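Researcher: Here's the sequence for the chain we discussed earlier.
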Amino acid sequence: MSLQDKVILITGASSGIGKATAQRLYKEGARIVVNYHSDDSAANALVESFGPDRAIAVRADAANISDIDRLVRTTVDKFGRIDVVVANAGLMLMRDVEDTTEDDFGQMFDINVKGPYFLAQKAVPHMPPGSRIIFISTGVCHYSSVPAKYLLYAATKGAIEQMTRVMAKGLAAKGIIVNAVAPGPTATELFFKGKPESVVNAIKGWSPFNRLGQPEEVANTIKFLASDESSWVVGQTVLVNGGIMV
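Model: Thanks. This is the structure I predict for it:
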């Protein structure tokens, strides 16, 4: 298996794309650290399905630096190193420039930018050459007709894409490869929340395949970027969006 015995830390791994990624990488032989914020039962059920010898659940706020430090230390105490970081945890508040509060701005940049930045910082000393850091962006950064309410979210993910490019250069000397994945609309619980069927159907129509992506399809791309097969893919943002060009 392509990720046999690799130690993979995934934030926001108890649901959605994070959970699908954990399950996909586990199938490749990896040892998984399931970070979660509040859903103990979902995280523990996932770890139980993997087995305690190959997985642990760590409750930590992925936007809080002391929690991030504890998450990394717990991973290293259990498995001895970190081979792959998947900075998946995120927040999406629908805000344009007129209705964004300072608190909104702080929350979004804390979880979507500060968290991944310092997770990488804390993890790097424990990552051997050949390790991977994988950030999560969004297709919103690549669409020309983005609704105004995506402004704040797009700003945070634009920061992630710049971070990916520049960090990839900085960590190349250590043999650590950095990339990002930018999913399009994906059928997660978070995506469906608050959306009437008419809106969901309209979004499906953005793709020539007239459907949403599945979390497993995003996880397959993350699996590629986590593996040795992606050794010459560096500093890139890979769009996983079913051909959406809006």
